[in-house]
């Protein structure tokens, strides 16, 4: 675990960082709800367009297309080994919140498509909107001491220890995932999917910075 467990923020003049009050239970609850709902909306848009995304969720979407299985079940199963890593490296609080977040997104991904639909959705705009929704969701989860498991756990762990931004770690994994996707999906679908994943990772890389705000 990192020895820096309190959130901090630089002062207005760019001087030394100062400690700020940590999130309370209610803060974390709304953060988890917001983050998981936004992520589930992103998945709904994604699967409506037949696209994939990056990280563990992207691998789950790709496998669900290939195997004909529900995204939620595949996503939850893929994350099981990473819960142990999260427990060992990030601690029980982070792991418990992440487990809850993964479970909520898995469940919401089943019901949200029945709550919303799209009469018209431009694929390019849909890919960008997926990245924005999912990025906002992940950002909220990161800031409240959680992730959506898998690569997110590794990315946050690396940022906590080295300062290397979580978004760039995820981008490297995504490059490998999308290279594999070219083997099973048509190029136009993969390119649109990469656009959405790029937007998502830029949201994280620009907004989730240890020198500005960390809350776990």
UniProtKB/TrEMBL annotation:
The chain crosses the membrane at residues 32-53, 65-87, 99-118, 163-184, 190-207. It is found in: Cell membrane. Keywords: Cell membrane, Membrane, Transmembrane, Transmembrane helix. GO terms for cellular component: plasma membrane. It is a multi-pass membrane protein. Pfam families: YitT_membrane. This is YitT family protein.
């Amino acid at each position: 675990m990192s020895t820096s467990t309190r959130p901090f923020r630089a002062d207005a003049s760019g001087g030394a960082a100062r400690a700020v009050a940590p999130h309370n239970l209610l803060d974390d609850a709304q953060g988890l709800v917001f983050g998981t709902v936004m992520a589930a909306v992103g998945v709904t848009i994604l699967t409506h367009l037949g696209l994939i995304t990056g990280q563990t969720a992207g691998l789950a979407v790709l496998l669900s297309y290939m195997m004909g299985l529900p995204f939620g079940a595949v996503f939850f199963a893929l994350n099981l080994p990473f819960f142990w890593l999260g427990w060992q490296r990030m601690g029980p609080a982070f792991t418990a919140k992440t487990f809850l977040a993964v479970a909520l997104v898995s469940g919401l991904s089943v019901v949200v498509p029945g709550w919303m639909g799209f009469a018209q959705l431009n694929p390019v705009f849909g890919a960008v909107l997926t990245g924005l929704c999912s990025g906002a969701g992940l950002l909220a989860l990161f800031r409240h001491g959680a992730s959506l498991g898998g690569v997110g756990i590794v990315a946050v762990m690396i940022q906590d220890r080295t300062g290397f931004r979580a978004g760039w770690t995820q981008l490297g994994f995504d490059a490998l995932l999308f290279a594999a996707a070219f083997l099973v999906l048509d190029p136009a679908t993969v390119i649109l999917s990469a656009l959405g994943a790029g937007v998502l990772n830029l949201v994280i890389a620009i907004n989730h910075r240890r020198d500005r705000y960390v809350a776990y």
